[in-house]
Each structure stands twice: as structure tokens, then as C-alpha cells.
Amino acid sequence: MKRRDFLKGVACGGLLLAADVPSALAQPFARQQKAMPPEAVGILYDATLCIGCKACVAACKEHNSMPPDFSTTDQLWDNAIDLSGKTLNIIKLYTHGAGAAKDREDGFSFVKRQCMHCIDPSCVSACPVSALTKDPKSGIVSYNKGACLGCRYCQVACPYNIPKFEWDAPFPQIRKCQLCSHRIKEGGYAACCEFCPTGASLFGTTKDLLEEARYRLTLKPGEEYGFPVGRIGSRETSHRTVEAVYQPRIYGEKEGGGTQVLMLAGVPFDKLGMPKLSETSDAARSEGLQHMIYRGMIAPIALLGGLLYAVHRSTKNNDDR
Amino acid sequence: MGEFRPLGGKIVTRPFLVLAAVALFAGVLLVKRFVYGIGAVSNMSDGYPWGIWITYDVVVGTAFACGGYALAMLVYVLNKKTYYPLIRSAILASMFGYTLAGVSIFFDVGRYWQAYNLILPWYSQLSSVMFEVALCVTTYIMVLWIEFAPSFLERWNKERMLKVLRKVLFLFIAVGVLLPTMHQSSLGLLVYIAGQKVSPLWQTGFLPLLFLITSITMGYAIVVFESILSSVGFRRPLETGLLAKLSAIIPKLLALYLVIRFGDLIGRGELGLVFRGDMKSIMFIVENLLYLIPTVILFSPANRERPRMLFIGAVLMLLAGAVYRFNTFLVGFDPGPGWHYFPSFSETMITVGLIAVEIMGYLLFVKTLPVLPSLKHA
Fold first, then answer.
1. Per-window interface: B 60-89 vs A, CB < 8 A
2. Is there a contact between A156 and B124 if contact means CB atoms under 8 Å apart?
């Protein structure tokens, strides 16, 4: 091989390794997006049904053995102001102006925040040691502290800022909602849904929840409807008149490739603090770019071959040069 | 042999003692971190889970430590023997930069006692950019110590081992060029998955390429910077001729970088963000001026013969690369309303302590080991 050809080869290998230029410009050379697991379960949170009683927050603490999170100096009652290493699920309040009317942009609305159990989760893609995994059947995203390094890349990656770190612990772990998978194993379901008195948090298979949500979007104010309470298919329903006008969208149906936790509300979702995401998951995009660079390790191996040849050539006749 | 010589001289000088005091203070703060948790010393939060320990110690620190990589490409891959006298001090600085980045990871990660999980195959997550970076950086730290080993062996007169090492050294040198090519580009890829949390001014599919190019420019810049600084500091003649030649490469790389950087911004239709006048746009302008000025300075051959201009160019380029990395990881990173990050005093002092250790190590090694070129070659 001629020296010039060879150097060209090295240069090309290097470029290939760094980025395939045209594909990098046309951003979506993402890998195939992950599909919804066959038995995916999740939650439908309907903000228009939520009365802000926080029974879900209390139930979540109790059934996941989480400690109280104090935000007042007397430290007498659990009153977390946001998700944290101590709080996996929280009800927040949006208000505008006088905040008189419920579920209106110029009024107020509750919003529940917790892990969305993405169909193609960034945290799972980011984690270097498989501490975060997505169950192939139920799709529940769980955390294994035995694997975790505490690098917090999951926190950087998550578009919803869900994984939380125990900043004040000498031996910290990541905390996040795992959809009460321990209760599901015993035939139960998510505590936040079981203890929700109005059916605002509803448990079920994501397929059923989507169907339910789509039906609710057809409801008009003034109509009567029996909203299921607890889980889809339960006998308990809450008959009530539809008062709010839904935003014509199911949050989580498409966001970031879709989530198993879905949301309905009368107030635009960005006002409720939900990020605007594209329909392509960040995991698909990032892995697509990475796999393109490292496909079959061809580029690195080719580059190494070239380097070995060149370095050997330039060092063979003298000491260490 | 004989081309490199220990500098000699007193090791425990006054500057050395000051550095030691700084390092000791950082050590005390680190004890606090391990007893009470990261929150006790750092301002990092669930919104800003990465602070200056990752951004400076690892992302900027390893790029500052690319001198060995950049020079090895010239000396060993392109066979430009002229630059050989600069190689050992460059490898040494790289070795310390990378080693301390590796050390810093141990106090940055929360569950450091499980760090070995990275190499357990049943935990390995091959699709994780972090996995690739962590493995690559760890391997490269070992490679750098091997690349530097001839200095130790010469010092201790281990002729036989030296002979064996020289037979296989080319393997390590080749791997030592491959690994930074991989992980310096992947360091840019790290934030790609953070999607819309990173401002479009920095979030792009070109992150790997841009990080790779700038790690190389920073590598050359640090060689120039260190050479001039140690010439002045140790009262040795300047290696201006050599540095001038080396600096001829830099403006071309910088120009290439700027073309890709702005071409990409225009291509994505995000150029307007530059003129918003907010913190992000100001930092973007600062970053790119820092790139533009040395490009202009170093395009002039006359400037490249002037030590002062070489030095200014190198410093600006190092700053540019550092600001680019800070912007990508912290300034351009916005997890949403309500989150703020500015490093705490303790957090900063731990990083400063780490830099102190790095300089102490460099001083100790150049004084006791054959690292700097013998004067007749300089």
C-alpha cells in the first residue's frame, strides 16, 4: 500500500468514526423506535377529575416505604414541594390570575407528576450498567440499586426530570416510581390509583387506557358519564356531569415516542409543566447516531488497523520513536 | 536515550508547598463529601445532576489532556519526527490529566463502590454512550502509563524491560490514538440524548465531530502552552521554531470547525438564537470569538514565529474549547423552570485541589524523570 493511500484511509476512518456528515445533518437517522410492550400497563391521569386531595401521594409513600419530605420548619407533616429522593409521586397546582375556574387556562388545574414509563425510555438507553430496565412484558421501568454506579446520566437524559438522587446520603441511590410492580406481582395495582377517590388516577393496560382517554375526548360539557375508579374494569364508577372542556390531546400518546402513563387536562399541557417533545424518542436518535458510528465496530477496527501499520512503520528502526 | 533528561533541582519549593496546601484543603472537603453525601459539598441538584466535576474535571480536563493524543498523531502516525522532543512532556501531561479525571469520577459518582459493575458483562449496557466513554477513558489511562513507562525504565536503568517494552510499544501508541478519537467524540454525544433540555445552539448531531476536532485543537494548544510555560518557568530556551511549525496546523482545523459549526446552525435554522441577547446567546458569542481570534492570529506565519502571539493563541484556544464544553454541558443545559446551578465554594475547591495535584505531579516528574528534551536538542 502506498503511504498516501494509507494515510487517506486513516483519515477517512477517523471521519467516519466522528460522524457521518450528511446523516448528521438530516437528524432523523434514528434507530427504529421501540414498540409498546404486549402487556403494557400504565396510568391515565385525568386532571379534570382530580380534587387535589393528595391521597395518591400519601398512599404512594406508605406502599413504597418512602420517608416523609418536610418543607416547613416544624417538620410535623409530609409536605413535599416536588419530586425528590423521598417522593415518587406528587400533585402540583397550576393557577392563573385569580384562579377561580377549575380546569381552565385562566383558572386553575391540578397536575400529577411521576415516572411516565416511556415506551422507548432515555434513562434505560443512557444507563451504562443496566440499572434501569424496561420489563419486556409490562413495560414497567425499574431500578436496580445493585447495578447502579450513581453516575446520574439517567437524570441528564430523562426529558421529564423523573429519576431523583439522594444528595444527602453517603450511600445514595436513584429513586423513581416503579408503578408499584411489587404490588402488581401480588395481584394488586398502583397504590396511587387504588386510593384515588375520584378515578383521576386510573390503572389499566395502556391499550385500554388509550381507548378510555379517546372516548373521554368525545364527551361534551353537560353530558353524564360513569368514570371508572381505581382500575379499568373495576365495578366502582363515579357518575358525574362533565364540566371541563378537554384539551383535544392525550399527553403521552405520541410524546417522545409515547409513554405508558397518559394524561388528560383542561389546561394546555405545557402550562402544567409538561415538556413539548417530538414524536421521535431521544433514545432512538442517540442510539441511531452511536450505532451508525460504531456499526459492527468496523470503523474503529479499520482505524486501529491503519494506526498499527503507521505507528509500526514509523517506530521500527529506532528506540521508542 | 539521552535525548531526554531529568531537570533536577529542588522538589519542595514554595509554589509546591502552596499547591500542597490547596490539595490538602480539597482532601478535607472530600472527607466531608464521603461522610455526608455529595449534597454536603456541591450545589448539584436533581435538575443539574452534573456540575463542574463532570464538566471541568472530566469533559474539559481530558480535552486539556489531549496533547499526547494530538502529538502522537503527528509523530507516530504522520511520521513527523521533528516534534519528537515535545512528546514526553505531552504524554506526561495527558497521563496526569486523564488519571485525575478518572480519580474525580470516583468522588462524583454516588455509588463508587460498585464502579466495577462497568466491566461485569451481565451489567454492561452497550447502547449507553456513558458505557463507551467510561470504558474507553479507563483503558486510555492505562495506555498512557504504559506509553510513559520508558521514562521510568530509563531512570531506573531497567535495560532489559525497556527493550521488551520498545518491541510492543507501537501497539499501545496505536491504541493510544484510537481511544481518544473514540471517547473525545463520544463525550460530545453524551448530551445528545438530553434532547430538548439542551439549547439548539449546542444540541446537534454534529456534537461528536465538533468535540473531536476541538479536542485535537486543544491538544496542540496545550503542547504550545506547556512548552512556552515550562521554558519560561524553568529558564530554558524557547522551542519557538518547533512550535511555529506545529501552530501552522491549528488555524486550518479551527477554520474547519467554524465552518461546520455555523453551517450546522444555519442548516438547522437556529442562527437567530445567537442574537437573542440572553445568557445563552452571549455565551455562544464569547465561545465563538474565542475560536475566531486565534484562527485569525495563527493564520499569519509572522505571528506564528512570535512566542507572545503563539502563547496568546494557545490560551485563547484552550479557553474556547473549555467554554464550548461548559456551554454544552451547563450553560446550554436547561432542565426547565426553577432549576439553577452555580458551583459551590467547596465543589470548586475540590476541583482546584485536583488541578494542584496535577501540577505537583508534573513538577515532580519533570524534575526526577527524563521527560523534557536535553538542551542541545531544544
1. 75-79, 81, 84, 87
2. no
